[in-house]
Amino acid sequence: MANGNTSLRICLLQFAAQQNLTQTLTHLEQLVSKAVNQYQPRIIALPECFNFNYCADSAIIKAAAESINDGVTGGTLSKLSKQYGVFIVGSLIERDRNNFYNTSAVWDPNGDVVARHRKESHLGKTLNFYSLLSGSIQIKNYFWLQVHLCNFRTITGLDVCEVDKLVPGNEITTFQVDDFKCGIAICKDTVFDEFIKIYGKNGCDLMFFPSAVHVTSGDQYWDLTNRARALDNQFYVAAISPARNEHAAYVVYGHSMIVGPDGFTLVRADAWEEIVFQEIDLKVIQKARKDFLLYQSRRPEVYNKYVDK
Length: 309
Hints:
The protein is α/β, with parallel strands linked by helices. It contains eight helices and 16 strands.
C-alpha cells in the first residue's frame, strides 16, 4: 500500500445542464461545494458531457466543444479541484485542432490534468442492438450501436449518431488515486465486456463510467451492465448519469450508482438531481478476489481456440 489507507470517499454529481454554460458551471460550483462540505470526498465524478444537454446534433456538439486545457469548462474544473483538494472526473466534448472527441479527463488536487479518455470506436457491423436486448423482432424498434461511439434510434424515433461527428479514441485510460488504480470508460464503452476486461487484467480497482443513457433503454441494461462489469472483474464501478430533464430533446435515464466487486449495488440515485456518496475499501476487493479466484481460474488457452484471430 502506498499510504496504508485502504478506503476512498467518492461523490457522483447527478445533475442536468442549465440554460447556458455560465449557469451550468455556476450550478456545478454549488454542487461541488455542497458535496465537499457534506461528504469530504477524495474524488468527485461528473456525468457524460455534463456542460450541455447531451444530443448528437452537429451544430450543438461543435458549439459545446472546448479545449481540455484552455477551455472555460476545463479551467473551472481545474480551479475547483485545486480549491477543494480533490480529484475531479469531468466529461465534455473536446476540441483538439480540427477534431472533436467525447472525452473524460481527470484533474488532480493540484488542478492538473492527469488522465484523458476518449470514447472508443472501431469500424464494424451495425447491430440491431435494441432488438437484441428486448428480444423483439420488430424492425421499427431498433437501437443501433457502432462500437463504441453511438449510432442509434430510440423507440421514440430520435436519431443519435456520434460516428459521423466525433473521432474515436483507441486506448484504455488509467490513473492513480492513493492506493486505488482507477480507469475510465464512457457510456457505450461499458457494453463491451472484452474492452472492460482489459482494465481488470491491468489491475484496476475502481472504474468510472460517465454515461448519458436514454430513458427508453435504461431499464433494460443500465443496472445489468454496471453490475455485470463489476462482477466480471471484481472491482468497484461508479456509473454517473445526468439528472433527467423531461423537457430535453434527449431524455436521460438517471439512476447513477456505485456497485461493489461482488456485483451488488451499494448506492443508487433516483432519476433527478442528487449527490451520490459512498466510501469504498480495497479490503473488500481483496476478500472478493480471495474468496473467488476468478482470474486464476481462467483458461484462455481453451477460449482462444474458438476465436478468430
